[in-house]
Amino acid sequence: MNSEKLCALVVAALVDIKAQNIITLDVRNMTEVTDYMVVASGTSSRHVRALIDNVTEEAKKSGHRPIGVEGESGGEWVLLDLQDVLVHVMLPKVREFYNLEKLWSIVPSEHVTASDG
Fold first, then answer.
1. Considering only CA atoms, which of 56, 57, 105 is closest in space to residue 78?
2. How confident is the model at residue 109 (pLDDT cuts 50, 70, 90)?
3. In the chain, at which end, N or C, are there fewer CB atoms within 10 A of the end residue's CB?
């Protein structure tokens, strides 16, 4: 399964149990760490964990074992690393504070060098 299909699987798994404000970021030209980031919100810590659990289960069914999961104990922001797709599920207040969508949409317009003087 290529990274685009994996990303679509992630989004479908999030939609399946009612994630809110799902955003997909294509970061292939910005980093070599991953191809896509999916950012979504849950309504409570329990919902955030359930969303990640559902994505994990669906990924495993399709043969993708997660590399790691961070933040499950708190449930305010959980990161699921599927290598080609990083999944961030957060409570709305946490998502608003960190604003990953804005952070990853910044593309430098030109290269600036320091002057000698």
1. 56
2. very low
3. C
Q: How far apart are CA 25 and CA 97, in angstroms?
A: 18
Residue-wise pLDDT tens digits, 30-79: 778 888 999 999 999 999 999 999 999 999 999 999 999 999 888 899 99
In whole angstroms, what separates CA 86 from the centre of its chain?
A: 4
For the chain, the DSSP string reads: --HHHHHHHHHHHHHHTT-EEEEEEE-TTT-SS-SEEEEEE-SSHHHHHHHHHHHHHHHHHTT---SEEE-TTT-SEEEEE-SSEEEEEE-HHHHHHH-HHHHTT---SS-------
pTM, to two decimals: 0.85
